[in-house]
Design brief:
60s Ribosomal Protein L30, Chain: A; 8 helices
């Protein structure tokens, strides 16, 4: 994401934390709806700003507006899913793209419909995943890199390794240490360079990816039944 948007993204997320709706934030920041939605979709409202539905300050108009917003984004996700089904036959002719979808089926995080996230310790898996995520995702969205390591790992060395592999800067790699790592004096940790993950918030890419995975699943079922 361009640096010129960093302060607006931070402001949008702050407003969401304070309980403002997407429509409110659009009105206040005068930014495109899709961009703002990508920025705030994973932001949790702070407990102090949450209002129970029986709260008299939460008007019927606000409740109806929130419902309309929810329905509108559900419709957009459905359209993106249908787009994914339509483009699947052509895209899957590219074997590296097919490999990416298969890898996501096996290793990707599927519980969040608003983001695309995959983790693995194999650098080749992550190179392929990064290539397709960057190629397909909204260019305005920020890609996040993280590596889970044991306390026996050298943090700087690990960051440099993945920076070299993915052609990024070491400071872009966030470190997550395993709390139960233990010492490795008597054994060798099999994930020499940790378990790396790539994540990007992109609701519509996630919907298309769901369609590509479903398309492949159906192909496998069809082959089995032949």
């Amino acid at each position: 994401m361009a640096n010129k948007y960093a302060h607006l993204r931070a402001k949008a997320r702050e407003l969401r934390q304070k309980g403002y709706t997407l429509t409110d934030i659009i009105d206040m920041l005068k930014m495109p709806e899709d961009m703002l939605n990508q920025w705030i979709q994973t932001v949790e409202i702070l407990e102090e700003y949450k209002r129970p539905k029986h709260d008299p300050t939460y008007s019927d108009a606000q409740r109806n507006r929130d419902q309309r917003n929810s329905e509108r984004f559900a419709e957009k996700r459905q359209l993106a899913y249908e787009q994914g089904l339509a483009e699947a036959p052509e895209l899957l002719k590219d074997y590296s793209f097919r490999d990416f979808v298969v890898l996501y089926l096996a290793e990707g995080y599927k519980r969040d419909r608003n983001s695309v996230s995959i983790a693995n310790s194999d650098s080749n898996v992550m190179v392929l995943s990064q290539y397709w995520i960057l190629k397909l995702a909204n260019a305005n969205n920020t890609i996040e890199y993280q590596v889970q390591i044991h306390k026996d790992h050298d943090e700087a060395e690990i960051k440099q390794y993945w920076a070299n592999v993915l052609n990024i800067l070491p400071h872009q790699v966030k470190i997550q240490r395993k709390s139960n790592s233990g010492e490795l004096d008597s054994r060798k940790f099999r994930s020499v360079h940790g378990v790396f993950s790539i994540r990007i918030g992109d609701t519509y890419l996630r919907a298309r990816l769901e369609a590509w995975m479903d398309y492949l699943r159906k192909q496998w079922v069809d082959v089995k039944q032949d």
